Amino acid sequence: EDEQIVAEIMERRFFPDHIAYKTWEGFHFAGHEIRITEATDCYGAVVWPSALVLCYFLETNSKQCNLVDKNVIEIGAGTGLVSIVASLLGAFVTATDLPELLGNLQYNILQNTKQKCKHQPCVKELSWGIDLEKNFPRSSCHFDYIMAADVVYHHPFLDELLLTFDHLCKNDTVILWAMKFRLENENRFVDRFQTLFDLEMISNFPSLNIALYKAMRKGRMKA
């Protein structure tokens, strides 16, 4: 079953027939052909398999996870594929990443969402753990969903990443997080994450070493 679903996910990707002056990959999600411009010299400007897993989940679970008119933020948006798919599914999306990645992110989002989405997504700088209250004040920023794909890997900002999740997440916010396990650091981050959030694995793909999680804040008021 794992290999069958993984094969279906990977079939959503296609490549240009001819060499182009810009490096790009194509994807089929939410009834659209999506073309993503990449930069192979930067981790944040490449589409990683975790993004495909999350996009596939959003599309195939659009009834249970209805994004229409929902307020969504993607952290570490990279090339913007997840944000684009969420926008095509009807969400109002804020795609965020480091300042040096915003140009390519903005380009991809405009090229793939203009006049195609109910709500035009916006692109905003977010350096994890920095100026969170200034740029995303708790009093006025409310997100129904926080989305993240492959934001945990061998980098020195795991503390700041956890702080960012904590700042953006309200009691009724749902976190959808696709993660590829590489090193022991990833397991330790999951343990720390679970001190703040109730974590549920909703999909697991051993052949990709990727898990998809749903999380909500601990101690929230329950109906």
UniProtKB/TrEMBL annotation:
Q: Which Pfam families match?
A: Methyltransf_16
Residue ranges of the TM segments: none
Query: Keyword annotations for this protein?
Result: Methyltransferase, S-adenosyl-L-methionine, Transferase
Give the signal peptide range. none
Q: What is any one GO biological process for this UniProt entry?
A: methylation
Q: Which Gene3D superfamilies match?
A: Vaccinia Virus protein VP39
User: Single GO molecular-function term?
Assistant: methyltransferase activity
Name of the molecule in the record: MT21E methyltransferase
Q: Which organism is it from?
A: Motacilla alba
